Amino acid sequence: MSNGSSSGISAVPMGFGQTARRDWWWVQPVAVFLGFSAFVIYATWSMFTPRNYYFGNYLSPFFEPELWGVSPNAWFGARPPMWPSWFIYSPAMLILIFPLGFRLTCYYYRGAYYKSFWADPPSCTVGEPRSHYRGENSFPLIVQNIHRYFLYAALVFVVFLSDDAWRGMWFAKAGGGTTFGVGVGTIILTVNAILIACYTFGCHSLRHLVGGGIDRLSQKPVRRDFYRCVSCLNRKHMPWAWFSLVWIGFADLYIRLCAMGVVTDWRIF
Ligand code: FES
Fold first, then answer.
1. 161: closest CA among 110, 196, 185, 211?
2. Pairing of strands 170-172, 58-59
3. Which of 4, 42, 72, 193 could form a disulfide with 165 if both were Cys (CB 3.0 to 4.6 A apart)?
4. Which helix (H) or strand (E) holds 196?
5. Which residues, 6 or more positions from 124, have their beta carbon under 8 angstroms from its beta carbon?
6. At what angle do helices 184-200 and 147-167 cross, to 10 degrees?
7. Biggest CA pair distance of the chain
8. Prior bond to 121 cis, omega within 30?
9. How far, in Å, CA of 138 to CA of 132, rounded?
10. How far is C-alpha 225 from the chain's CA centre?
């Protein structure tokens, strides 16, 4: 695709990185590149490190739900029966595809990583390294349309992560049983569930799902109100995407540091 002036008067082809812009247009793509790269490296390390991922009643959100695993939260047992004995097993391997697939195909993230990783284009009115634009109408990028299906899974994950926060409020008692309480980890897991919910409920696909097929929303008051709520969150979709991304990594790190004895989890009551 050729880049031209935004005035529409002329369309002058530009070489990669060439632009008439004088602002710091490159700061955002570089920041996105560094932020995404750091998260992907950390999340991959965490997935392949299946120890110290729980502490007492806290379970790292990367491992929620824990179908098979070694923590007391595991649903079935330590390891799936069919799992090859020679291959490393981590509970996160079975589930991370859903939240990661949801983020990878998110409309906001697509726009962001197309710019920062593929330079396609690096920014508005900046020359790109390709001469034509294939778009998302053909393979492989047409696969991005799977986003609406990842949304269904993400909605279920909001429930799982809310349950993760709820379990973080119940601490083991000395004589057996559990008692209600709030520790720093409880707050971290609760904020995590809220941020993930705000990100998920502001999804463009969800917005279309609740209001996109109706001509007169005013005649459907329940869907109209839901549509307004989704639209409200959708307006800040980018901040929700980043806050929830950073926080879930932080929650995982906090629980690992507690489990390793590096930090103490303070009980507020
Ligand atoms: Fe971002 Fe659906 S568009 S989560």
1. 196
2. unpaired
3. 193
4. helix 184-200
5. 6, 25
6. 160
7. 79
8. yes
9. 14
10. 25
How large is the average pLDDT for residues 4-27? Answer: 70
C-alpha span between 101 and 98 (Å, rounded): 5
Strands (E), the chain: 54-55, 58-59, 170-172, 178-180
Q: Round to whole Å and give the CA distance between 141 and 18.
A: 26
**Tokens of residue 7, six digits:** 């005035």
Chain position carrying tokens 């279309």: 208
Q: What angle do CA 193, 238, 107 make, to 5 degrees?
A: 100
Q: Which range (9-13, 21-25, 100-104, 192-196) has the least confidence?
A: 9-13
Distance 102 CA to ligand 1 centre (A): 7
Q: How many CA atoms lie within 13 A of 98 on its CB side?
A: 19
Better-scored residue on pLDDT, 196 or 15 = 196
Structure tokens at 138: 């053909």
**Mutate-to-test residue for ligand 1 from 157, 237, 238, 244, highest number of ligand atoms within 8 A of CB:** 237
- Give the number of the atom of ligand 1 that is nearest the alpha carbon of residue 154: 4
- 185-191-192 Cα angle (round to 5): 85
Report the predicted TM-score, pTM, of the whole model to 2 decimal places: 0.92
Residue holding tokens 């962001």? 112
Distance CA 104, CA 161 (A): 19
**Which residue from 98, 108, 208 has its CB within 8 A of the most atoms of ligand 1, so it is best to mutate?**
108
Helix, strand, or coil here: 32? helix
Q: Which residue has the tokens 């729980």?
A: 54
